[in-house]
Amino acid sequence: MEHVRDNVYAELISPGCNVGIIATKKGTLIADTPLVSRQAGEINEALVAVGHEPVRFISITHHHPDHVLGTTLFGEDVLIIGNRASYENMGEHDPGSLEAWINTWTWENPDDVTEMLAARVLPPEVVFEEELTLYLGGVEIWFFPLPGHLAEHTGIFVPEAGVLITGDALFKDHHPYMGQGNFQVWFKSFAKMRDLKAERFIPGHGPVCGYEAIEKQQRYMEKMMEIRANWNPAEGEPTIPSSAIDELLDFYPLHGRPVAMMRARVIESIRIAGDPQF
Ligand SMILES: [Zn+2]
């Protein structure tokens, strides 16, 4: 568990997603979940070791399986919080899509895969429409729309600590997944993120970071829009120069994923740049 600022911590899980951790006297709230019970145990142990309460609240930024798979890992007394769209979309999980996601990574521990494949995802119990403010044990936590990666996406801001938990609105050192996205809406969320004047960002994937991560991801996406403007997918793919795809691949590490798979993902993202998914 990494100390970010004040009462805010992060557990950087890869493969998996980052877990934002906000400690309060009423118990700790996490933003998005770890994948397996071993990781949940480590988070609670680390919290108790530095004198904080264990996890009592789970909030979710969006319903993608790598962010919500662990809703049952902290026991039955934990309260789950999310917006209405995530609540509705959480019914979408099927073992096939989970398996497909698991297969894009290399896992060190086969037991983890077995546990993940058997996971049961619980929907939020506290459901808000667009925004929600908690004053949990005196700590202000603001949930607000941060769409782009998905329409439903929520950001979670802790003003006193100056920390924004971005979920997949921001990726650091990872190629963003854009297959269900909308680039123009995403750029507006970047503007919103800049306006918050946060001190630190906990991205959905990769290390805790500052504004440079937003600028880099914006450049990456603008480059995709530029390529898309000169490419008509109806005429086939060869009109994207291979060098342009290589340049995009060089933006972020591949983390051991096959190059062919990541090239396909970049091409898919270029397609989405001109074909908003919501
Ligand atoms: Zn996602």
Q: Would you mind describing this structure in some detail?
A:
It is a single chain. The protein is of the alpha/beta class. It has a single domain, classed as 4-Layer Sandwich (Metallo-beta-lactamase, Chain A). Helix content is 34%, strand content 22%. It has helices at residues 37-49, 65-68, 84-89, 95-102, 110-117, 183-195, 211-229, 242-249, 259-273, and strands at residues 2-5, 8-11, 19-22, 28-31, 55-59, 79-83, 126-128, 132-136, 139-145, 154-158, 163-171, 200-205. It has a 7-stranded mixed β-sheet with strand order 1-2-3-4-5-6-7. A hairpin with a 2-residue loop joins strand 8 and strand 9 (139-145). The longest helix has 19 residues, at 211-229. Zinc ion is lined by residues 62, 64, 149, 168, 177.
